[in-house]
Target: Spermidine/putrescine import ATP-binding protein PotA
Amino acid sequence: MSAKSVHLNMVTKEFKDDQGKTSTAVSQVNLKVEPGEFVTLLGPSGCGKTTTLRMVAGFETITTGDIFFGADNVRDVSPSKRDCTMVFQSYALFPHMSVYENVAYGLRIKKMSDTDIRSKVNSIFDIMNLRDYSARMPAQLSGGQQQRVALARALVMEPGVLLFDEPLSNLDAKLRLTMRDEIRRIQQEVGITTLYVTHDQAEAMSMSDRIVVMNQGRIEQVGTPVEIYQQPATEFVAGFIGSANFLRGVVVEKKNTQHAVKYPMGILQQFFEDDQAINGEEIVTAIRPEAISLHIEAPINLNGHNIVNGMVKKSVFMGQTQEYTVEINGINLDVHASNPISERVFTVGQEVSVAIPYDAMRKVN
Model:
C-alpha cells in the first residue's frame, strides 16, 4: 500500500434548511495528516467531526476550501475515484455473501482475475486472522468478527487513505478494548494513512499519533495524546479530555516564566511559557485532579508546590483511585489519589494540607 498525505485547506461546510437559513457545520478547518499517520477527530456530538470525514471521503460537498491527497486536489473528485476507503459504524456487510465474497467484492468490481483476487484476499486474511471464517456468512459472526471483515474489505483495495466513522460504537465495552488494539496493530503493520472519528476519549488517546479536538465546527487543538492531556490549549479541551479543576484569578506578579496569581483560595505560584500572561490579566487555570496531593500536615522540602490548607468534603473509593473533594476558602477542588490500598485514605471532615505543583497549573484562556 502506498500511504498518502491528506491536507485540508480552509475547509468549510454550510447547510441550508427548508426555509433557506444557512448554518455552518465545519468552519475553516486546516489540517495536515502525514503519510502513514493515525489521526483522530475527537469531539462531542454535533462538533463537525463526521461531516469533516465525509468531506474527505467525498460523501459531502465542500462549500469552500480544498482537500488534497498527496499533491492531488480531490475537491471535485467523486468518492469512487478517490484513493480512500471508509469503514462504517454499521459495518455494511452484504448478508447474502460469505466472508470471502464480501472481502473480494471490490476487487471483482475492478475486474481483477480470480487468481489475483484469491492472492490479495488471502493475504489480508492472514493479517486479520480471518482464514478460518472465509466460508461463513455475516450472520454467523460476532460483532468483533464482523468489524474485522469490514476492515479487511477496506484494506484489500490497497487505498492510500483509510477512514473510520465511529467503527466501535456498536460493540460492548470489553470488545471495544480488544478491537481498538487490533485496529492500531493492523494500521501500523500495513502503514496506511488513517483518519478516525470518535467521541470516545479512551479510543483517541490509546490509538492516535495525533488528536484533533473539535468543537462547534472548529479545531480547538491538534497534538499528541500527551500534549492534548498535559498541555490543553483551551478551557474546552481541558474539560473535554479527562477531568480538570478550573480556577479564575488575576496575575499580580511576574518573574520571568514564574507568576504569582491571586485566586479566591489565595495567591499561588505557577509557570507560564514565554509572555503568556501579563500583570493585571484575568486568567483561567486548569489543574488535573491526579496532579494534586493531600498530606496530614504541610510537607517539608516539597519544592515547586503551592501548599494550602483545606477540608475533605467528599471521599469515595473507586478501586484504582480514591476520589476527594477538598474545600479551600470556599473553593472546591477535585483530587484523585492513586493506589488507595497502600496510601493513607482521608475521611470527610478531616483537615489536610493540599500540594499543587506549579507546573501542573495550565493557563487555558
